[in-house]
Amino acid sequence: MLKLISYKLCPYVHKAAITLRAKGVPYDIAYIDLHRPPDWFHPISPLGKVPLLLVGDDVLFESTAIMEYLDEAYTPRLHPDDLILRAKHRAWIAFADVCLRDMYRVALREDEVAFREALNHLHGDFDQLEPAVAAGPFFAGSEFSLVDAAYGPLFFQLDILAGIEPAIFDPRRHSRMVAWKEALLGHPAVVQAVVPDFRDHYLDWLSMKDSYMAQRLLKMI
Fold this sequence. Notes:
single chain; alpha+beta; Glutaredoxin; Glutathione S-transferase Yfyf (Class Pi), Chain A, domain 2; 2 domains; four-stranded mixed β-sheet; 4 strands; globular
């Protein structure tokens, strides 16, 4: 059986786990503490990151490479058959990592000025993403794709942050993304790919940061 090496809050692990669940592939999962990883971790993780996917005696690293392997190894295929369309989907999957990076910066900027600047960058990302989103419910229409697996973690964490600061997501400015976000947040593969108490873990993590969003959170408690 496949084994996924994970850290509970990692959105990149979430991408791989969503892909596994969307395909109905059975797997085991092992959670590690990235600050105090087990001795066996660094020798098999060239970048010192998760996820890792153990496939027999082989170890795969990097979330997008893992997603691509799973899509080629197991049905149903989540990538489109058309070569041009598939290349476009791969490009938008890469763009998901840009959005995740900028969302992380929004969560961790120390003061309101820096927070607003980071938020402008994130909204700029969404401005580019918005026209590419189909009528729904998913990125490319009626079928769940690998692009959806890539953006599920973004919307999962974005929804938590927007509960603290509603300005993080503007449904009027990014109206196409609203239905897409709701479809992903209601999809079993997205919801079940994280630990049941993910929200509590995430808020605990955020509350310990010296950031504007942490200050907003602590005022709500």
